[in-house]
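Table 4 source record.
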Amino acid sequence: MFLFDTYVAPSAIHGLGVFTREAIPRGRRVWEYTPGIDHAHTAAEFERLPPRAQRFLKRHGFHDTRTGYYVLGGDFDLFSNHSADPRHVNLVADGSDPNPISAALIASRDIPAGEELLADYREWDRYADEKLTRL
């Protein structure tokens, strides 16, 4: 779940995106797995889902390469977009986060209010390349 006020708006990257309403300083925790809002599935649970649900989770969630969990954000995270350009990426995984479900995301630089939040999916999502070929 995002830890500050966000909104969804048209994105120059792809369709709709998530934007911040407030300035975020570099290093601030921006997103973390929040039980009751976000959903996590083990590999066994994922395999028991119907094929349509598996496709949805792969497309709109992520398979955490660190923990092996399939995670689906329960807030505007569903609208998060990818950028491979390091000049545009402003969220990175917090490698020191001990959460057993999924690492938190932190601001990799100061982010002004109104900027779209972008991450390089390949940093933590096992299905990033598959997603990116469909964009």
